[in-house]
Design a protein that fits this description.
Length: 726
């Protein structure tokens, strides 16, 4: 949610028991708000050097007794306003007509108010709790701003000259509707939207709510040029986009013609339609108040805030690459960046990849300001452990055959956040969780690595080699079991099998050999191959299928598929039920050929052994749900175009670094979704294809379990295997 400063006028002197209504017409009026800072005008109204505002509690917060806001008597507020008007008017000639109209509206609000007290609530601007010393200092500082003027001078003080020169960020957004801020701002179903919104606009897509700004992403219901509703999804997605709060504050209006609008790290990216497909969109950045920080006239393409301090845009010199600039100063930082990422929720560092002259890719790690933490020569660097400072790094191993330069691979190692290499990048695998996870620190502050021959090496976290026994581990058994590895000593087939302890580095033979182990493994495989396949097929009538409906199962399934959006899930649930009752001819390939000739409700539907009515309900859902992507098993271009999925609008698949196999693309998409609390779920598919969807991470296990009830297997995409080249 955005941090804000809020002005509220009340009849009662604020206390721990004061009632703050969320609707107009009661004992309180909403005046104005502003995001991220306290506008200078708010401070002028609250006090001056002779009459400082008082610190009071605000009962709208959980800690009702803590001093958290400032209050001033309305008589003093009105007097200071009259003084400010005398110093400001006539208004400067460079003020726009809309700015002058806003000034007059503010004058009416202040001079006609019948309330007794004015409260300034800016607690959300401070990241500290009320009982911390830092918050007390913040509240004192908010009050002390008022000491810069005394409210009686005949001319405007120097500290207030900016009100004349550049008032846009110093007056606030004035509307009685800001009284809504006295309660939590939440999204509503479209059917519950106010008339001014629901009559003319609709969500751009299901789930189009931005929590950073607490706004809906909307498009007009009718095309601005034709006045007609869109005839197709493509036409609908081409409509101009806007961002608006539930109480009517437009941060970006559809009338401005933007094709894409999204919030990122304290800025709003605004992209105009591309004049030439693929050439890049003329774009700009706004702050969360809707003011231009970087207007589109500056000429940057596909601009977005990569961190609160760094902007990424399309490079004019290098196709399919980016340039990075500082924010807000726009100082050039890095050019021809092929991939860039940042997650404040993990290790808080930026990662950028650039292609060297030899065609190889190198990754640099930067602080959020875009400055390198060290000079990196690594192809990739995973997530740093904030406690140990360690991350897994990859470096390309040159091919052994000079005639075949494509036969290269990557070696893994460990690097510290300061740039010190803890383990050289010569290993096949560093023990860790997921592909980009930090190295796993084992008991005794030890790290585990495997050579390309399968030999385990044990290091401490300072990089000292502790043990490199003459044993090897199969790929199937490289996970620790009670701090020990199953390993082999000697050459196949007579190699001794045993357990290697990472605690004392001892090897304890089990009395078996590699041949014994391999024979047992082959026996399991053979038994699986010989297992009989189910061949029984039953039938169920459509009437019986409709009667077997599990309403709770369907409701929960629809809710998960629609990311918890009530309106979208209700519509999907209705479409789903309609499809079960009256399916299209091609919905179920397993239905009887005689169904059309049968009496309504008596058609037979094939039900193979092991399936059940949940299976059939699932097949109907996958036939009509627009949230499922379905692509050919090797169609990487279709996968790259999956940016229409929730959370994927700014996803970029770097094939040079992340690999060009379709499995690499799925891993890349999953990694992009994870910081947003979203998961990529692979769904069952009977043909040579992929079916997948985006769900909330916390819902994925439940959906997998529900599909298990339908005798269908699904799984969450994690990451691909480490980058290798054969």
């Amino acid at each position: 949610m955005p941090a804000y400063a809020l002005l509220l006028a009340h009849d009662e002197f604020p206390s721990s028991s004061t009632h703050w209504p969320v609707e107009p017409g009661g004992v309180c009026d909403g005046w104005a708000e502003w995001f991220d800072t306290t506008p200078l005008l708010f401070s002028v109204l609250m006090g001056d050097a002779q009459q400082l505002p008082k610190q009071v509690p605000c009962s709208a917060y959980e800690d009702k007794d803590a001093l958290s806001a400032l209050v001033a008597p309305m008589a003093q507020v009105k007097a200071r306003w009259q003084w400010l008007k005398a110093c400001m008017e006539p208004l400067p000639s460079h003020w726009s007509a809309s700015m002058c109209a806003q000034w007059q509206a503010m004058d009416s609000t202040i001079t006609t108010s019948q309330r007794q007290w004015l409260l300034l609530d800016s607690a959300m601007l401070c990241p500290h709790d009320f009982d911390e010393p830092e918050f007390a200092h913040f509240l004192h500082a908010q009050r002390d701003v008022c000491r810069q003027w005394d409210g009686h001078t005949p001319v405007l003080p120097e500290a207030l000259q900016i009100l004349k020169q550049d008032p846009h960020a110093q007056l606030g957004w004035w509307s009685p509707a800001v009284i809504a801020r006295t309660a939590a701002i939440e999204q509503d179903d479209e059917q519950d939207w106010p008339a001014w919104l629901v009559e003319h606009y609709t969500l751009r897509h299901f789930g189009a709510w931005d929590e950073q700004t607490q706004t809906y992403c909307v498009v007009p219901k009718r095309h601005p040029s034709t006045g007609l509703p869109p005839h197709s999804e493509d036409e609908r997605m081409s409509l101009p986009v806007g961002m608006v709060t539930p109480y009517g504050r437009w941060l970006q209006h559809p009338d401005d013609g933007a094709h894409l609008v999204f919030a990122s790290h304290g800025y709003i990216s605004v992209w105009q339609p591309e004049s030439v497909p693929g050439a890049g969109a003329v774009s700009g950045l706004k702050d969360f108040n809707g003011l231009w920080v970087l207007p589109p006239t500056a000429g940057y393409l596909n601009a977005m805030a990569l961190t609160p301090h760094v902007m990424q845009c399309k490079s004019p010199q290098a196709p399919d690459a980016y340039d990075l600039y500082s924010l807000p100063g726009l100082v050039p930082l890095h050019t021809a960046v092929t991939d860039a990422s940042y997650s404040a929720d993990t290790d808080g560092v930026m990662r950028i990849s650039c292609q060297a002259a030899d065609g190889n890719t190198t990754m640099q790690v930067l602080n959020p300001q875009g400055q390198p933490l060290f000079d990196s020569t690594y192809a990739h660097i995973g997530e740093f452990n904030l406690k140990t400072g360690l991350a897994v790094a990859w470096r390309r191993i040159a091919p052994s055959d000079d005639k075949d330069q494509t036969n290269s691979r990557f070696g893994e190692g460990v690097v510290h956040l300061c740039g010190k290499e803890i383990m050289a990048c010569t290993y096949e695998r560093i023990e860790r969780g997921f592909n980009d996870s930090p190295p796993k620190v084992l008991p005794g502050s030890k790290l585990l690595a495997f050579t390309h021959q399968g030999q385990p090496h044990i290091y401490n976290t300072q990089g000292k080699l502790l043990s490199s026994p003459d044993i090897w581990c199969s790929h199937l058994h490289r996970k620790l079991q009670k701090n020990a590895l199953m390993a082999f000593m000697g050459e196949r087939p007579g190699a001794q099998m045993g357990m290697f302890s990472i605690k004392d580095f001892s090897f304890t033979p089990t009395g078996e050999t590699w041949q014994d182990y391999d024979d047992a493994l082959q026996g399991v495989i053979q038994r699986l191959r010989q297992a009989p396949l189910p061949a029984t097929t039953e039938t169920i009538t459509r009437a019986a299928l409709i009667k077997a409906q599990d309403a709770d199962w369907m409701q929960r399934m629809a809710t998960i598929v629609c990311l918890g959006q009530p309106t979208a899930s209700a519509q999907l649930l209705q479409d789903w039920r309609d499809c079960v009752a009256h399916p299209d001819a091609q919905v179920l390939s397993g239905e009887s050929e005689d169904e059309e000739a049968a009496a309504p409700g008596e058609q037979d539907i094939k039900l193979p052994d092991g399936d059940n009515f949940y299976t059939l309900y699932w097949l109907h859902l996958q036939a009509i749900a627009a949230q499922f992507a379905h692509i050919d098993w090797k169609d990487t271009d279709a996968l790259r175009s999956s940016t229409w999925l929730s959370g994927a609008h700014d996803w970029h698949w770097d094939k040079d670094l992340q690999g060009d196999a379709i499995s690499d693309g799925f891993a890349s998409l999953a990694q992009h979704l994870a910081p947003q609390g979203l998961a990529l779920l692979h769904l069952p598919c009977s043909d040579d294809a992929w079916r997948y969807a985006v769900v909330r991470s916390q819902d994925a296990p439940e959906l997998i379990t529900m599909l298990g009830q339908a005798a269908r297997h699904a799984w969450v995409e994690t990451t691909s295997e480490p980058w290798t080249e054969d």
